[in-house]
Amino acid sequence: MFRKDLIDVLHEQPTSLHELAQRLGIQPKILEDDLHHLIRPLRHMPYHAMIIPAACRKCGFTFQKDKLHKPGKCPRCNGTWITPALISIKQR
């Protein structure tokens, strides 16, 4: 699968990295690298990436947008009840 093919897959709805990796049959780490390489040149295309960052459900801490994988623990409260980051691509 080419990185440009991911635009069509992510254009449907916001998806977590793990769900997308299962759907495509790719390891999440490889897919995460491909997504980072895809997001950069999108500013030269008629698309832009929408990333909803991972967040702790216990205390509300929001992680950085560049972390696409689900963190293990919250740095603020050490809770493990974390929502994964959601990625989608929208047309401008």
Structure write-up:
- The protein is built from three helices and five strands, in the order αβααββββ.
- It has 92 residues and is an alpha+beta fold.
- The chain has one domain.
- The longest helix has 12 residues, at 28-39.
How do the helices and strands line up, and which of them pair or pack?
Elements: H1 5-10, E1 15-16, H2 17-24, H3 28-39, E2 47-52, E3 55-56, E4 82-83, E5 86-91
Antiparallel strand pairs: 1-5, 2-5, 3-4
Strand order of the largest sheet: 1-5-2
| Helix/strand order, N-terminal first | HEHHEEEE
Q: Tell me the major beta sheet.
A: 3 strands, antiparallel
Shape: globular
User: SS-based structural class?
Assistant: alpha+beta
**Helix amount, in percent?**
25-40%
Distance between the termini: 24 Å
- Proportion of β residues? 15-25%
Query: Care to count the β-strands?
Result: 5
Give a quick rundown of the structure:
The chain is 28% helix and 20% strand. It is of the alpha+beta class.
Could you name the key traits of this structure?
two-stranded antiparallel ribbon; alpha+beta; 3 helices; 92 residues; 3-stranded antiparallel β-sheet; 5 strands; 28% helix
